[in-house]
Amino acid sequence: MKNQVNYTLLFWVVNLGLAILKILFALRPEIDAFTEEAQYWLWSRNLDWQYYSKPPMVAVLNFLSTGIAGHSELGIRLVPTVLGIFSAGMIFSFTKNLYKSTPTAFWAGLIFLAMPITFLGFTFHTTDTSMTFFWILAWFALWKAIHSEDKKSWIFAGLATALGILSKNAMLFIFPAALIYLVATGSLKKHLSNFILFALVSLLGFLPGIIWNFQHDFYTFKHIAALGGAGGEPKPFDFGLLIARTTEYFGGQLAMVSVFFLPFFYLGFKKLWKDKDTTSLYMALPGLMTFLIFGALSFFSWILVNWPGFAFSTFAVFLAPVVSSLSHGWKKYRNIAGALSLGAMILIYLPNLGDWKSSGPIYSAEKALFKRMLGYDDLGKRVQSLADSLGGGNPIIFSESYHTASELALYMPSHPQTLVINMGSRKNQWDLWPGMDLQVGNTGRFILVSRVKDSPEEVAVFGKLIYEEELPFYFGKDSIGKSKIQVWEHLLEYNPVDLGTF
């Protein structure tokens, strides 16, 4: 008799093993925080009920995690690592209870862990991290609520959704997804009163943002409208641009769910069409709906590859019964596909001890993937050294890029509140904080740091340039670029180039 595989133990070995790998990745000295991570970290140093473009959850979680693990990559990425463990655990447990099969639960968990969108989403701490966690929690709670008479489950689903809304406004997609399912299964009338209760509890998550936007000229609403293509001058139809946008979107989505899993999607949707199984419909619906909605929007505007990814998480539960009941030949492909999908990410994340990844395709992939995470630690230390050597108080640290300004705030040991000058960019969080305009007339020192500009030009006019240098940054032995550092004295004028765009 063959030994039975302990699928529960195997799942947790993989889940916790990948969590350890992510911690090791956070400790890789040559790779710094992602620029968006640095921005959200700086938000946590300025806690508020809402921010220019996002709700407050990412800042609150950063505040808590860096209070435990320090202001470092590990402190920032502790949240996605922990939420990733629990999210995969929810996928495994829910699938096991749903199908009464541990092997099926194992494959659901493995697919979830191996999809690039969830692997990356639970490595880097962005607003998608917590929203995906609360999406899974809310969608599973809704399943229980719909298939029971338990009003408490509807309320719990509403609370989870409210926390998701406090993470990212895209959590609102849960309402049309749930309504489509209720209509498709003919149960809307039966659950209408409870659905309204669920919606009312959920919308509590909007209250802080609505109050904040009333106080700040509806900046968030204007920003979201701008992302959707509203406003601005009408542009002539460009077929080539349309093809570029849609190709980038659809190609990116195939990569995010792993091209190795595409045959399973074909088999799963084929089975769903044939059997009309409501359980499979429930698990496939969120991902399919968001994929199509953002796909339609890609005809009119550029869509970032991660935007629909939060709803792809339940694809793992949708695919699990398909991949666990394949024929012998297909099972071989399944095992290879899972290994390749996970293995590709693992190879990139592993530490480069002994320079074993200093050339070849892995090196090239890392160079492209981590380009926005290089050189900021050294840059912060160099700017801190210059600031300390000037004497006469703390100089004002500024940049034309909020990405660079965020990284400097994180990597300078003094963690200063950096400033951003507007040289023709859209509005951002720095437009809501005390800015350079309040420094006009300050006779002290100012340090400009930029990876794009050679000077502040006519935007910030100073009395004297004291010092300047260029600091190169590298990936391995390859030069990636240079950072310009200038020390100025006495701000005479500040003339922002305000385009009025959001």
Automatic annotation (TrEMBL):
Single GO BP term: lipopolysaccharide biosynthetic process
InterPro entries for this protein: LipidA_mod_glycosyltrf_83, RgtA/B/C-like
GO cellular component, one term: plasma membrane
Molecular-function GO term, any one: pentosyltransferase activity
Keyword entries, A-Z: Cell membrane, Glycosyltransferase, Membrane, Transferase, Transmembrane, Transmembrane helix
Domain Glycosyltransferase RgtA/B/C/D-like: 53-212
Topology class, membrane: Multi-pass membrane protein
Location relative to the cell: Cell membrane
Primary site of residence: membrane
Membrane-spanning parts: 6-27, 74-94, 106-124, 154-183, 195-214, 249-269, 281-304, 310-329, 336-354
Coiled coil: none
The protein's name in its UniProt record: Dolichyl-phosphate-mannose-protein mannosyltransferase
